[in-house]
Design brief:
single chain, mainly alpha, Arc Repressor Mutant, subunit A, 7 helices, elongated, transcription regulation, transcription, AraC-like DNA-binding protein, Homeodomain-like_sf, sequence-specific DNA binding
């Protein structure tokens, strides 16, 4: 994780990192920051460089990649651990963010 001088954004990112499985909403993240939804969205993007929900999705895929490659967890187990209710939704998000499917990633990681 990177250091943030912006304390509210740091607290929000720490919460995302601690609970990637949580059904986060922009409203919930804004509450953690103590801000309105619109103010939070603008400040997060300005501070971090991307929208909060895009950051969360990317973080979830980083966590998922680690669990698939380094811990040997099956996709069906990883999906709910990073906030997805179905393997299909997880697979689509993984492919969109990572550029390949979770199965392709598993095969490549296995070497």
């Amino acid at each position: 994780m990177f250091a943030l001088a912006d304390k509210p954004m740091h607290v929000v990112i720490a919460a995302m990192h601690a609970q990637p499985e949580r059904k986060w909403t922009l409203e919930a993240l804004a509450r953690i920051a103590g801000m309105s939804r619109s103010s939070f969205a603008v400040r997060f993007k300005r501070t971090v460089g991307e929208p909060a929900m895009d950051y969360l999705t990317r973080w979830r895929m980083i966590v998922a990649s680690d669990r698939l490659a380094n811990r040997g967890m099956p996709i069906a187990v990883v999906a709910p651990l990073v906030g997805y209710e179905s393997e299909g939704a997880f697979g689509a998000a993984f492919k969109r963010v990572m550029g390949y499917s979770p199965k392709q990633f598993e095969r490549a990681a296995a070497g």
